[in-house]
Specification:
The complex is a heterodimer of chains A (about 350) and B (about 300).
Chain A: H1 18-23, H2 28-44, H3 53-76, H4 84-101, H5 106-131, H6 135-158, H7 172-180, E1 182-185, E2 188-191, H8 192-210, H9 212-222, H10 224-229, H11 234-260, H12 271-281, H13 293-312, H14 319-344
Antiparallel strand pairs in A: 1-2
Chain B: H1 3-9, E1 27-36, E2 39-49, E3 54-59, H2 65-72, E4 80-85, E5 88-89, H3 95-100, E6 103-106, H4 118-122, E7 129-130, E8 133-134, H5 136-149, H6 166-180, E9 184-188, H7 196-211, E10 215-220, H8 223-229, E11 232-237, E12 240-246, H9 252-260, H10 264-272, H11 297-303
Parallel strand pairs in B: 3-10, 3-11, 6-9, 9-10
Antiparallel strand pairs in B: 1-2, 1-4, 4-5, 7-8, 11-12
Helix pairs in contact in B: 1-6, 6-7
Classes of the chains: A mainly alpha (about 350), B alpha/beta (about 300).
The complex binds adenosine-5'-diphosphate and magnesium ion.
Chain lengths: ~350, ~300
């Protein structure tokens, strides 16, 4: 009789190849999409090929990407923030109105706006926790509240639909230098939000992939009850994620304020969907627990390229939204396909 | 070196009011009660868990076993009675607090984060850090070692837990609890989803955890599994303790009979005689739809509470 010694390894599961591992990353779909969009506009829009326009494209992308990074982390944590678009405007208006009304140093307004933005985020997270309602509903409420406050307070304080210019106030020049300056890199003009965007992407990706907070975020979105049961502070994690959205809204709000010297009270409505779409193109699942910060950044880049590409190609910009819709569905399908392929390998 | 001993070496730090030389029962539940709205899931439950012993909690589905361990694990608060950990009355506000006191749990219904990798799940909420960052190589190595000891080999620990089989997932959860449990390990029906061999491995680990001086609460509805490792047996019925006995006072037959509700088992075999277990039916055209077997009123009454 022969005895078979048990082999410790299970030979049915082959080690995955390097390509399968790379193809299994959530941002792959977005990268493929970005290359496709770039190739398309390089072919049809001559101005797209000029090196000088890289700065313009990156700047357009950064005004989406700054928010998309925070929104992607929030979505990986299993929640939405529909107030993210108007929150940017709220932050800008808060700084502008406070500083102008009391003729304060603009930095006082800036700090006030930061506290307010973080507070709105914390409030969203807290309301979600105490009511147990879906974030879709809670932040839809915040969205309307903020939208109304933006319009009404601007009419009360500034008597119109835009905040008053802060040009003459103390600290204006230093604030403009911090939030809305630019510098030349060869023939490319780099506006400072591009730096913010890049920094946020790096920090976000490191937090997600290299720190224990990343595990908390993934698990809070993947199965919050199971995460809580093993000791993850799920409520705190989600509140922090909402505050992250608030922080990014503050950065972008300050940029908008000091770039244009005033803020339109009706601005920002609808942008929340652009942030969410960027995150989804970048591989975030709507159900939470899966996604990528780098992917969301690439998603924002696709937006920036498309926005300017359509303009450079001389097409009617009305087509932009249509293009977005097609992009969204295509990217989601590619993500799904790539994920299945990688899992099957 | 086994997993239980390494975890015992990292034994929970002593907390306020605890003496380091305490040698009474690690966990005492006195008259614990818990209601979900108008459902009294537990009433007047007394259980004592000693370190170095395996306390088995048995009971039918719905008896209140999971509710009981969720109280100990900090997931639910009890509404009546007291829970003492090392002689001090505690009410854990959250699972994180319970863990800090050295209690690790494998839940029956709360699994792992499906889209997260195996190693991240293993160390979830207990991550090993190097400065502010995760020490990924060490975590992967320990995770692989602990899983190998349990008899499963997952070549790619970056794989999402959702792509593992149910049994493999269960083993990951058990390995995690055994690795991190410092004083008390609670296992809620850990063998229910496992094959014979892996059930055997889990039972061995339960014994090893006991040898390492941990208090083990082993929840099961399988009296054979319980009797293989248990020192103490508690049978729950409809939220009450129906039996609380030490191993010396009980045989496997008595335990099985107690679980099945005494002579009910004899009745069951009498009932099922008409089923003819030796019978084989030749394939023929299916009539479509199988009639539900008829139950007598006694049996129906017995099912209402389940
Ligand atoms: N979250 C809950 N809400 C309401 N009732 C519950 C809840 N969890 C359990 N129960 C009820 O409590 C009783 C005991 O359940 P459980 O502790 O899960 O039993 P077991 O684990 O022994 O099968 C059952 O009647 C069950 O329906
Ligand atoms: Mg149960």
């Amino acid at each position: 009789m022969t005895t078979v010694t048990a082999t410790p390894t299970d030979d049915r599961v082959a080690t995955r190849s390097a390509t399968a591992t790379i193809m299994g990353r959530p941002e792959v779909g977005a990268l493929i999409g970005a290359v496709a969009v770039a190739v398309l506009f390089l072919l049809v829009a001559p101005a797209f090929r000029s090196v000088g326009n890289i700065g313009t494209i990156l700047y357009g992308s950064s005004t989406i990407g700054i928010m998309a990074v925070a929104v992607a982390l929030l979505m990986i944590g299993g929640e939405f923030d529909l107030s993210a678009g108007v929150a940017v405007t709220t932050s800008g208006l808060a700084a502008a109105h406070l500083a102008w009304f009391f003729s304060l140093n603009v930095w006082v307004g800036i700090v006030f706006a930061l506290v307010l933005s973080l507070g709105v985020g914390a409030f969203n997270g807290w309301l979600l926790h105490v009511t147990g309602l879906p974030s879709f509903l809670v932040t839809l409420g915040t969205f309307f509240v903020l939208q109304g406050v933006n319009l009404a307070l601007t009419r009360v304080v500034a008597g119109g639909v835009s905040s008053n210019s802060l040009n003459d106030l103390d600290g204006f020049d230093s604030a403009k230098a911090v939030f809305a300056s630019s510098f030349q890199l060869g023939s490319v003009e780099i506006k400072v939000p591009i730096i913010f965007w890049a920094a946020l992407t790096v920090i976000g990706a490191i937090v997600l992939l290299r720190t224990h907070y990343g595990s908390w975020i993934f698990s809070a979105g993947g199965d919050s009850a199971a995460a809580r049961a093993v000791g993850v502070p799920v409520t705190g994690t989600k509140i922090a994620l909402f505050m992250g959205v608030g922080f990014c809204a503050w950065i972008l709000g300050m940029h908008n304020l000091f770039n244009y010297n005033n803020v339109q009270s009706g601005a920002g409505v609808g942008n929340e969907f652009i942030y969410i779409i960027s995150a989804v193109i970048g591989g975030c699942l709507l159900t939470g627990g899966y996604g990528s910060v780098v992917g969301a950044t690439v998603g924002s880049l696709i937006f920036g390229m498309t926005q300017l590409g359509i303009f450079y190609a001389g097409w009617d910009p009305d087509w932009f939204k249509t293009f977005l819709g097609v992009m969204l569905i295509a990217a989601t399908l590619v993500n799904l396909y790539v994920k299945r392929k990688a899992d099957a390998r | 070196m086994n997993a239980a001993r390494t975890s015992a070496a990292r034994a929970a730090t002593t907390h306020a009011g605890e003496s380091s030389t305490y040698d009474g029962p690690v966990l005492e539940l006195e008259n614990i009660g818990k209601s979900y709205g108008n459902v009294h899931a537990l009433r007047g439950v007394n259980i004592t868990v000693r370190q170095g012993e395996v306390t088995c909690v048995l009971g039918d589905n719905g008896a209140g076993k999971s509710t009981l361990i969720k109280i100990v694990a900090g997931l639910h608060e009890y509404s009546e009675g007291t829970m003492k950990l090392r002689g001090i009355v505690r009410q854990f506000g959250s699972p994180r607090v319970a863990q800090a006191f050295g209690i690790a749990t494998v839940y029956q219904d709360l699994a792992l984060a499906p889209l997260m990798s195996v190693w991240r799940n293993f160390f979830l909420a207990n991550e090993i850090r190097k400065g502010p960052f995760l020490d990924i190589p060490t975590m992967k190595r320990i995770c692989a070692e602990e899983l190998t000891k349990m008899g499963i080999v997952i070549p790619d620990l970056d794989r999402a837990v959702g792509s593992l089989s149910g049994g493999q997932r269960q083993v990951v959860a058990i390995a995690r609890a055994i690795y991190f449990g410092a004083r008390v390990i609670i296992l809620d029906e850990p063998t229910a989803a496992l094959g014979v061999k892996q059930s055997g491995v889990v039972l061995k680990y339960i014994a090893k955890a006991r040898d390492a001086g941990l208090g083990v609460i082993f929840i099961t509805h399988n009296p054979h599994h319980a009797y293989l490792v248990g020192n103490h047996f508690v049978v729950l019925k409809l939220g009450h303790v129906a039996l609380d006995a030490h191993r010396d006072e009980l045989t496997l037959e008595q335990l099985t009979a107690e679980m099945a509700g005494g002579q009910e088992l004899a009745e069951l075999s009498h009932e099922l005689r008409s089923v003819h277990p030796e019978k084989v039916v030749l394939p023929h055209d299916a009539p479509g739809g199988i009639e539900a077997p008829e139950l007598d009123p006694n049996e129906l009454a017995g099912m209402e509470d389940v």
